[in-house]
Write a structure and sequence with these properties.
Layout (H helix, E strand, L loop, with lengths): L24 E8 L5 H11 L7 H11 L14 H6 L6 E6 L4 E6 L7 H8 L4 E7 L6 H12 L4 E7 L8 H17 L6 E4 L23 H7 L13 E8 L8 E6 L4 E3 L3 E5 L3 E9 L8 E3 L3 E6 L10 E4 L6 E12 L11 E5 L2 E14 L6 E2 L9 E14 L10 E6 L2 E11 L22 H8 L4 E7 L5 H14 L4 E6 L27 H14 L3 E7 L3 H11 L3 E6 L10 H16 L3
Parallel strand pairs: 1-3, 1-4, 4-5, 5-6, 22-24, 22-25, 23-24
Antiparallel strand pairs: 2-3, 7-8, 7-14, 8-13, 9-12, 10-11, 10-14, 11-13, 15-19, 15-21, 16-17, 16-20, 17-18, 17-19, 20-21
Helix pairs in contact: 9-12, 10-11
């Protein structure tokens, strides 16, 4: 931890609020337990650096005098009437000031436990943080919660200030006791403060110049510590990541482009770059960069919402992440170790299905294991069976299907998530790492509660004069697998075979089966909201056991869906074919696909 004093005192530069060309701007959030004085810290900084609008300080003093209240620097920040009445910060306030080095946006976040959501919202926009602890009250529950949340949000540059040192007679021992205890706490959650500073915000001690009342302290004053923070590297220098928002196709004027759209979260890409879509693993190359009513461009960087056309037409959908093949790839897993902060009214329970939203992906998830839970009101950790409201936890979650992400240590934009419970955001956190995948329970096959027939598969095949097989006819936008699948079923029945048609809604777009509250879709895996491909596989496996040739039509199947189906229908065979485009159906391509399917089924010995 650095402790070198900055000898040069601050000198105000220019008119408050003016923007100097070429100056760097940094976002800093200030947090702390309620009444520990964080708003006073910011208010005094604004006053001492000459950053207040003309007459603001005088108007606040007049307000206090009219209302027979002692003057508070916090009132410079707490503009809402109910905040001034109660003396607490409810919402995040953004203020601006400057040092000789750079411009600052200070985000004053609420400290009361009931407004932790607002604190998280404010901190998520910050590059660095100042955490305030009262020297007399010492470390409180929200001092720990806020420290954990800052670390969880990936804020690595943290300065801790011990405020109200005047109330403990500027005692070195009081400061060091708090410093040592809090550093030990942060060490348990993998965080290290950049600076630890004793101050008296109301009296202006150690804010922008060294304090004569604390000669024993040789480190930075607060403004010097803020100036010592380092700017984050530009996102354009990070690996390319674009979560897919949607795919657009325009049919007028013979426009056959399929435009993959989204917001570039990090990195840059240009025409000609080979790209990979995760978790499906599909590959292509950027053919063009498309913008709405925009000039043509050959390269795009972070922060831009844009569209791409691809050289090879592949089916990708919302929730995939586009990455460059030449760079470090996003990770893919269905088991994640996460740090979670829970804000839901009901606990985060292992037996319930929730939704995890990361980027544009929305995947059913459930709590598998709580590794460690911190009770912020105590000094140690606890083991619990559920994560309660306002708890922070290190835990493992299981997803219904693989998700593309980056560990928070690599990229923040694709490493943060929220968890939705009953259409409300109930928790949020960061992904620490991918964990080895265990065999999904659904892969074990048929529902165990059903009694099986005693007639074996070979005997049934002799009786029906056919061998069971699942034929999947799939297709993306502009294709109609249902038409081809029904034609194949009709042909098989005409040949005297026992066939059955199953249709499935778009596996990547439909959420109707994933949001059922009735429990009717629950299968052996225990998921209350199973993915559509798994439901199709469960139904097909029963029909295959009956000796039928099952013909299924499905849009939007990815490689993981096919793996799920293969596991569910074992030991029966699976044959996958691609439906023709709508425009090709009149040319007899559907009939050709039916003949291709019949030929392959004969080769497999199914018919």
């Amino acid at each position: 931890m650095e402790s070198t004093r900055i000898p040069t005192p601050f000198a105000p530069t220019g008119i408050p609020g003016s923007k100097v060309e070429g100056r760097i701007r940094m976002n800093i959030v200030i947090v702390g337990h309620v009444d520990h004085g964080k708003s006073t810290v910011v208010g005094r900084l604004l006053a001492d650096t000459g950053s207040l609008p003309d007459g603001k300080l005088e108007s606040v003093r007049a307000f206090c005098e009219r209302n027979s209240r002692p003057f508070e620097y916090a009132f410079l920040l707490d503009a809402l009437k109910d905040e001034q009445a109660q003396g607490i910060t409810i919402d995040t306030a953004r203020t601006f000031f400057k040092s000789a080095k750079r411009d600052y946006i200070i985000i004053d976040a609420p400290g009361h436990i009931e407004f932790l959501k607002n604190m998280v919202t404010g901190a998520a926009r910050a590059e660095a943080a100042v955490l305030v602890i009262d020297a007399k009250e010492g470390i409180r529950e929200n001092s720990k919660r806020h420290g954990y949340l800052l670390a969880m949000l990936g804020i690595k540059q943290i300065t801790v200030v011990v405020n109200k040192m005047d109330l403990v007679n500027y005692s070195k021992e009081a400061f060091e006791d708090i410093r040592d205890e809090y550093i030990a706490f942060l060490a348990r959650i993998g965080a290290t403060p950049r600076f630890f500073i004793p101050i008296s915000a109301f009296n202006g001690e150690n804010l922008i110049t060294p304090s004569d009342k604390m000669p024993w302290f040789k480190g930075h004053h607060l403004l010097g510590a803020m100036d010592a923070f380092e700017k984050e590297p530009p996102k354009a220098n990070q690996p390319f990541r674009m979560p897919i928002q949607d795919v657009y196709k325009f049919t007028s004027l013979n426009d056959d482009r399929r435009i993959v759209s989204g917001r570039v979260e990090s990195g840059s890409a240009k025409v000609g770059d080979p790209v990979v879509f995760l978790p499906s693993g599909k590959k292509s190359r950027i053919a063009s960069i498309e913008g709405f009513h925009a000039l043509p461009r050959t390269e795009v960087g972070a922060g831009v919402s844009i569209g791409f056309t691809l050289a090879e037409q592949i089916y990708v959908g919302r929730g995939e992440v586009m990455v460059k093949a030449s760079e470090v790839q996003a990770e893919v897993s269905r088991r994640l170790r996460i740090n979670l902060f829970w804000m839901g009214k009901k606990p985060f329970n292992p037996g319930k299905t929730y939704y995890l939203k990361l980027g544009t992906a929305k995947v059913p998830c459930r709590l598998e294991k709580i590794n460690y839970l911190i009770d912020a009101s105590e000094s140690g950790g606890q083991t619990k069976s559920a994560v309660e409201r306002h708890d922070v936890a290190d835990c493992v979650i299981e997803l219904s299907k693989p998700l593309a992400f980056d560990p928070i240590a690599r990229l923040e934009s694709t490493g943060r998530f929220v968890i939705v419970d009953q259409y409300e955001i109930a928790g949020g956190g960061i992904v620490r790492e991918a964990l080895p995948e265990e065999v999904h329970v659904a892969a074990s096959g048929k529902p165990s509660l059903l009694s099986r027939s005693t007639l074996g598969g070979e005997a049934r095949a002799r009786l029906l004069n056919q061998k069971p097989a699942l034929v999947i006819i799939s297709g993306g936008p502009g294709r109609n697998p249902n038409l081809a699948a029904k034609a194949l079923e009709t042909k098989l029945i005409g040949l005297g075979k026992h066939a059955f048609y199953l249709g499935l809604e778009d596996a990547q777009e439909s959420e109707s089966l994933q949001t059922s509250e009735s429990g009717n879709a629950k299968i052996e895996s225990g998921w209350e909201a199973e993915v559509p491909a798994a439901i199709l596989g469960q139904a097909a496996s029963l029909l295959l056991d009956a000796g039928l040739v099952v013909v299924a039509a499905a849009k939007g199947l990815d490689s993981e869906d096919i793996k799920t189906l293969e596991n569910l229908v074992k030991p029966h065979a699976l044959l996958q074919l691609e439906a023709p485009a709508d425009a090709e159906e009149a040319t007899g391509t559907t009939a050709g696909l039916v003949e291709e399917a019949l030929g392959k089924l004969r080769g497999m010995g199914s018919i």
